[in-house]
Design a protein that fits this description.
This is Ankyrin repeat protein. Keywords: ANK repeat, Repeat. One of its GO terms (molecular function) is ubiquitin-protein transferase activity. The chain has 8 helices and no strands. By secondary structure, the protein is mostly helical. It has a single domain, classed as Serine Threonine Protein Phosphatase 5, Tetratricopeptide repeat, CATH 1.25.40.20. Helix 2 runs parallel beside helix 4, helix 5 packs parallel to helix 7 and helix 7 packs antiparallel against helix 8.
Length: about 130
């Protein structure tokens, strides 16, 4: 239920579930947390609610993606700021060797590339492909 609410941007439902017994770090079938899904959908208020419950921002899904990969992929700067300010590894590699910087650059998201570089992303990281 938490993953469904997060993926649909229902921040109030997410908060109610977290007030109950929902595990903020639970994984779905693809290894994604609710934070991955909130970032994939661009739902800042949901991500804020999850982070307030001390979600592990560095969990990787089955493809090695973190929530930062998701936020960079869609070019969501406020989500990126939120994640960076809560300790996410800006140079985390997915299973293809891509960092969030690679995802942003590939998508032509100039502002996100600049933001990640300002936050210490390694411009010299190489992919595995």
């Amino acid at each position: 239920a938490l993953h469904k609410a997060a993926s649909n941007g229902h921040d109030l439902v997410v908060k109610l579930l977290l007030d109950g017994s929902a595990d903020v770090n639970a994984l779905n079938i693809t290894g994604s947390t609710a934070l991955h899904l909130a970032c994939r959908g661009g739902f800042l208020s949901v991500a804020q609610a999850l982070i307030a419950r001390v979600v592990d921002v560095n969990i990787k899904d089955h493809l090695g993606w973190t929530a930062l990969h998701e936020a960079a992929e869609i070019g969501h700067e406020p989500l990126i700021w939120l994640l960076v300010n809560n300790g996410i590894d800006v140079d985390s590699l997915n299973f293809e060797g891509h960092t969030a910087l690679h995802r942003a650059a590939e998508g032509g998201r100039v502002n996100v590339v600049q933001l990640l570089l300002q936050q210490g992303a390694d411009v010299n990281m190489r992919t595995f492909t």
